[in-house]
Structures are given as structure tokens and as C-alpha cells.
Amino acid sequence: MSRKGALTASNSGRFPAVVAPKPPAVPGNLAASSSNGLFTAIEVNGGGDAKIRAWVESMRASSPTQKTTPLPGDHRAWMTQHPSALDMFEQITKVSKGKKIVMFLDYDGTLSPIVDNPDAAYMSDAMRATVRNLASYFPTAIVTGRCIDKVFSFVQLAELYYAGSHGMDIKGPESKKDRENIVFQPAKEFLPMIEEVYKILVVKTSSTPGVLVENNKFCVSVHFRCVDDKKWEKLAKRVASVLEEYPKLRLTHGRKVLEVRPAIAWDKGKALNFLLQSLGYANSNTVCPVYIGDDKTDEDAFKVLKESGKGFGIVVSKVPRDTHATYSLQEPSEVMHFLHRLVEWKRQTHKGSQEIRRR
């Protein structure tokens, strides 16, 4: 069985092999875009300054630091559509009862606070303990734009599944027999190109105060959280100009970050489906996937769950926003509270089942 197509779990042997899809060709001059319209792709070949300018304005308008306080009525309406997962906890557990819950968690802004320096996005000991307890009851995966090595250095839990670089680098829990357990890398052929572009962008953006270029193995992140917003347009043009020479890469943006990624049909939603398939739940009606995230890239996963009718997404946001998620939480502290309640609910359910069997 190929290591590339098989998932190894530390407590349940090998799962069925999954064949990696061949990366599709790049369509036209567009650096690919998400199908849900919530994650913006930037046209880099022939888009012109107008395209860049329009994107910058949309990013500025959606920036939490630029947003005005939402009107009470607007927030109430949004919360009616996406109620708090804490307030709806009883309903959530009722729907999930008898099903196999599988947890998918974003990292930045979900398990750790958003910080100016991405290298300092540390996970609290309390959150780590909560996630460790969660994984003892439910298969749990971290799905992030970070490279696996970086996010693992923050999380430090070997019993989890990790999907780094927006799902382009997937790895199962470590086992004694095979400590690597590399599962799936659909964009492996792009590694030399990504490394090359990373080095170029470090040089090209060095004159912009506050910018930070991060190599996330299968993608390059250009963080501009600490950049004066008057310089965003110039920075975006500079990054886009580099990609004119790399038509097989696409440029997108998330929360105060530009991201360069392989132009293949792969995202967090596809990573979610891959992991469910590897776990044997692809066509199961007894599985309940739960995905919690705060970023635009998480919308791909929210949409998959919404369209499948299985499980649900929980968006982490203090302000109303377009989302495919069913429920909401405001910040990482609420995420931890929700996960803790889920663990306690499972413990009580498990304890009750054991008592019934002993009778």
C-alpha cells in the first residue's frame, strides 16, 4: 500500500488507500478562484491596476479595524441566522447523538488569538489540554494555511491529524511503527516553484515596512497586518507582478494576508472530504463532521458540510459576515468552552452507556 495514498492511525491500523487526483490545468489567465465567492482570487495576468485596486478596497472594507460597530438590529439578524454554538449546544448534541463526530479545527483565530507576529501565535496550555481531551473521544484534525511543521510546533499533539498549507499537506497521527505517516501531498511538484517565489517575494517586499513573508511549504503567505493600509495597493501590485512569470500559481487573500498557492482544485473543503474518506466515512450517514474556523479559506469546508447535509460549520467571528457556517462563536475562548462542553457531554454519554451494559 502506498504511503502517499493511505492514512495510518495510531489506534486503528491502516485505512483504505486514496488515490491522489492529478492537478488540473490552469484556466486562462485567471489564477483560479474559490467556487463559493467568499475567498477572493486576484487576476494576475491582464487584470490591470483596476482589478488590484478593487480588491484592495474590498479588503479594506472587510478589515475588522476598518469596520464600524454593527447596528444592534444587524447583529441580531445575523445571530438569528448563525446562532451561538454555545446557546444551541443541547440541540447540537441531540442531532449528533448516535453519530460519529469528527472534529476539524482551524488554528489561527480559532485555537489561538490573531496576533501581529504570526510566529508568536502560541496556543495556551488550557486550549492544548482541551484539544487533547477532545482527540481522546473524537478523531480530530487541524486544518490550516500554516505548514505542518509550524503548526505542530504550536499544538504539540501527535495524536491529531494535520492538514497544512490549506490541505495540500496531510499527515495522520504518529504511530510507533511509522513516525512519518505522510499521507497526501497533491501539490508536491510545486515545491521547487514555491521555494523560488518565496525567495523572490522576500526581496521584492523588503522595502515595505511591516510586511512579513512566510514560507508555508506549499504556499507563500505575505502578511500585511502591520503594514499601513495606504501601502496595501502597492504591495498587492508588487506581489501580483511576481506571479506574472508563474501562471501555475494563484494569488488569493485571507485575513490581512496575501497567499500564493498552486493553481489546483484543492482547498480545505477537499481536505475535509479526503480525511473523511480515509477514515471510512465518505458515504456514511452516521458521521457528523464539525468544522470550526474563522478565516475566509474555511468557507470551502463550511460549504462542503452545508451542501452535504452532514454535520455543520461554526464560524469564529465577532462581527456579521457572509458565511456558509450554521453556527457561530465569537473568539478562541468560546471555542475552548464549546470543545470542553463537547468532551464533558461525551464523557457523560460514555459513562451512562457503561453503566447500562453492567446491569
Automatic annotation (TrEMBL):
<dbReference type="InterPro" id="IPR006379">
    <property type="entry name" value="HAD-SF_hydro_IIB"/>
</dbReference>
<dbReference type="GO" id="GO:0005992">
    <property type="term" value="P:trehalose biosynthetic process"/>
</dbReference>
<keyword id="KW-0346">Stress response</keyword>
<comment type="pathway">
    <text>Glycan biosynthesis; trehalose biosynthesis.</text>
</comment>
<dbReference type="InterPro" id="IPR036412">
    <property type="entry name" value="HAD-like_sf"/>
</dbReference>
<comment type="function">
    <text>Removes the phosphate from trehalose 6-phosphate to produce free trehalose. Trehalose accumulation in plant may improve abiotic stress tolerance.</text>
</comment>
<dbReference type="InterPro" id="IPR003337">
    <property type="entry name" value="Trehalose_PPase"/>
</dbReference>
<comment type="similarity">
    <text>Belongs to the trehalose phosphatase family.</text>
</comment>
<dbReference type="Pfam" id="PF02358">
    <property type="entry name" value="Trehalose_PPase"/>
</dbReference>
<dbReference type="InterPro" id="IPR044651">
    <property type="entry name" value="OTSB-like"/>
</dbReference>
<protein>
    <recommendedName>
        <fullName>Trehalose 6-phosphate phosphatase</fullName>
        <ecNumber>3.1.3.12</ecNumber>
    </recommendedName>
</protein>
<dbReference type="GO" id="GO:0004805">
    <property type="term" value="F:trehalose-phosphatase activity"/>
</dbReference>
<dbReference type="InterPro" id="IPR023214">
    <property type="entry name" value="HAD_sf"/>
</dbReference>
<keyword id="KW-0378">Hydrolase</keyword>
